[in-house]
Batch of 2 targets.
Target 1
Amino acid sequence: MRVVQGEFTLSTRRKLELVDITGRVENFVRGSGVRNGICLVYLPHATAALIANEHEEGLMEDIIRKISEEFPHDSEWKHNLIDDNAPAHLASSFMGSSRVFPISGGRLVRGTWQNIFFVELDGPRPVRKVFLTAMGD
């Protein structure tokens, strides 16, 4: 079994933001030499998340709005007494910081309307990391 690891960095510009990382993940998979297996995409951040969904501007705005509604900054979160970023930690906990995608024929498998998004929940940040592991034959 082949195991290939990689990483890349990105920066964010807004407090809440979706950054499409699909192309970078697909390039990694193509270069990994793994023909059939899986690709793990992992964020080593407690205030960011990963989702797979359509890259359509209205939907992207709806996702940001829903995150803000579910995890409002003006609630009396106890963690805000320490860091003032409790909504980011909570949203990340519920959304998740990793996703696994199949690899088939040397290509990342995803639905027609599924792109991979880094979800910034506590930006802007000059450096965010994304770790990748491709495993298989």
Target 2
Amino acid sequence: MRVHTVRSGIIAEINMIPLIDVSLILLIIFMVITPFLVQSQIQVALPKASSGTKGGDDNVIKVQLAADGTLTVDGKPVRPARLENELILRFSKAYKKTVLVEADKAVPVERVVQVLDAAKKLGAGKVGIAVKPE
């Protein structure tokens, strides 16, 4: 009687299935979390008003002025001296842009007027100031 012995060798393959599973799960997690991360990064305490209209979000450039002096355009931090250049870049991408200023109630009116003036000077279709309803 002959006994056959099978030589077992080392398997030198990498199992790709767990790697693909983990990659797909991470992709799904990042896709779900991304909209929350894209929201505005600075907190602005808007002033209250009894009258106001709900504006559409299409073709709107949001300029935020925080109480600590931070200025952002569509969530991107901008130095005040570069505001006009940043608005020019935004205006060149679409026709008839609307500029919405979200200013903290502690921000001096002069800074808000400077932003509105720059927007109108560069040809904004509409300008507005965001308020919180009472």
